[in-house]
Design goal:
Number of domains: 1
Number of strands: 9
Strand content: 15-25%
Number of helices: 8
Largest sheet: 8 strands, parallel, barrel
Mean pLDDT: 95
Order of helices and strands: EHEEHHEHEHEHEHEHE
Radius of gyration: 17 Å
CATH superfamily: Phosphatidylinositol (PI) phosphodiesterase
Low-confidence stretches: none
Strand order of the largest sheet: 1-2-4-5-6-7-8-9
CATH class: Alpha Beta
Helix content: 25-40%
Structural class: alpha/beta
Length: 248
């Protein structure tokens, strides 16, 4: 059995601040830091003018009011939208952040990043390429691989494009349910990890992935008892919304 190598902390704040602050915002990441977390996961997609921004949903209506989509909206317009008031009036005026600004903030505050490349449909290749290229520039002075973020994605095309643009950034392939071909798919992308839905993850899945030299991260674990069970099974890291319940 090969020992897998997980590059970051063992507990990761989901979308920055979990359920305690608006997701995919700097306010959310600050909340994670305030709770002692030094590892965050967030989603990145492109605007119409190819600016990488933090956003989960391709269409407006949940965290951004109104109609429309990220892929059809230019950055200068998206930058004026409120990304916090949907969560609480306390966060009214919180803006959609650019990926570049978030990376610089995390670098300055010693926060490790799991960058989920979340392309809008039809933009898989270009999203992976631009996120890869920008990450390479932002970490150009980083010595070795320590401190580098981790790319992850459900999209094989996006992850392959990011690998071509920034081959030195480690990668993890995302699944809801790990298929029988999961190991082969991860190896084809030179991934170091597989990320899976904890509700559908089995102990034997973890053993199989570890035997293949792959680390295992699981999402979204919000109960201490389940976190402890997964740790007993050998999971390398968990992503959680309940950064108030699960200590970092």
């Amino acid at each position: 059995m090969r020992t897998p190598s997980w590059p970051g902390p063992r507990r990761i704040a989901h979308r920055g601040g979990g359920k305690l602050a608006p997701e995919n915002t700097l306010a959310g990441i600050r909340e994670g830091i305030a709770r002692g977390y030094r590892a965050v996961e967030f989603d990145v997609m492109l605007t119409a003018d190819e600016v990488p921004v933090l956003m989960h949903d391709p269409n407006f209506g949940r965290t951004i009011a109104g109609r429309g989509s990220v892929a059809a909206t230019r950055w200068e317009d998206l930058a004026t939208r409120d990304a916090g008031v949907w969560f609480s009036s306390r966060y009214a005026g919180e803006r959609v952040p650019r990926y570049e600004d978030v990376v610089r903030f995390c670098q300055a505050n010693g926060v490790w990043m799991n960058v989920e490349i979340k392309p809008a449909p039809g933009f898989e290749v270009v999203t992976g390429r631009i996120v890869g290229e920008m990450t390479g520039r932002l970490f150009a002075d980083q010595s070795g691989r320590a401190g580098w973020p981790l790319f992850s994605s459900f999209s094989i095309e996006a992850l392959a494009s990011a690998r071509a643009a920034a081959p030195h950034v480690p990668r993890g392939l995302l699944f809801d349910v790990i298929p029988e071909t999961g190991v082969e798919a991860a190896r084809a992308l030179d991934c170091i990890s597989v990320h899976a839905n904890h509700r559908k993850l089995r102990e034997e899945d973890i053993a199989r992935l570890h035997d293949a030299g792959l680390a295992v991260m699981t999402y979204t674990v919000n109960e201490q008892r389940r976190a402890e069970q997964l740790a007993d099974w050998g999971v390398d890291a968990i992503c959680t919304d309940r950064i108030d319940r699960l200590r970092p």
